[in-house]
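Table S2 (text version). Query chain:
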Amino acid sequence: MLNYCNLLRSTIKILTQDAHVTGFTEKTFELLGQLEKNNNRMWYEENKAALKEHARLPFAGMLSISTMLLEGSRYPLIGSEKTMFRQNRDIRFSKDKTLYKSYVSGMLTPTGTNKERAGVVYAQVGPLDGRLAAGFYQLETAQLNLVRDRIIADAENFAEIAETLEAKGYPLSTHNTLKTMPRGFKQHEGHALAPYLKLKGYTVRQDQPKEVWLNGDIVERLVALAEIIGPMNAWLRNALSYDAR
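Corresponding structure-token output:
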């Protein structure tokens, strides 16, 4: 009998046979590279249809297939064209006036909308390669303090989940962290989990080379990450709604 991993690979192979709908090709990377070098309205309008066919449609297909494969999971997430981000950049309040993103991006989310930033799995493919990320990004201070309180109260479970993530190649990112202990938590400076109390978000990320997009393995990796981050996302949701009374 096939185990889950082999069954997953077999299903992915069948679903990704049509590269124009559910896969990526060299043309994907070529077009995104050209967009990076020719980031202007004229080039974009002339190549908009090609970008849709070779970059955006395959990306939407990847999200849709991942959604199907996660339907029976303990941690189902939903993605489609609706959870993708626009190619146009919002330059109204930015010093960077580049008109278009030179990458395609989107998410798997709990409800299937791209307005969510909590408990998601994010994917991005650019001119050379891509990346996957997941978790709770940039929480508000009040939310962070709820999580910090819960880390202290439920240290053993949190540490186990964090250690499992690291063992699977997805350690919690320390990119967005405070230099000193947050206000109200100075007394926990010597706590074994003090580095996690300084975090401003609870996310993981991993670069994904060009090959995994071309051979279809990116679907398996996306689904796997949804499963891997699931326990942490569930723990964080509980922390944000926890009432000790």
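Notes on Table S2: The longest helix spans residues 41-69. Confidence is low (pLDDT under 50) at residues 1-5.
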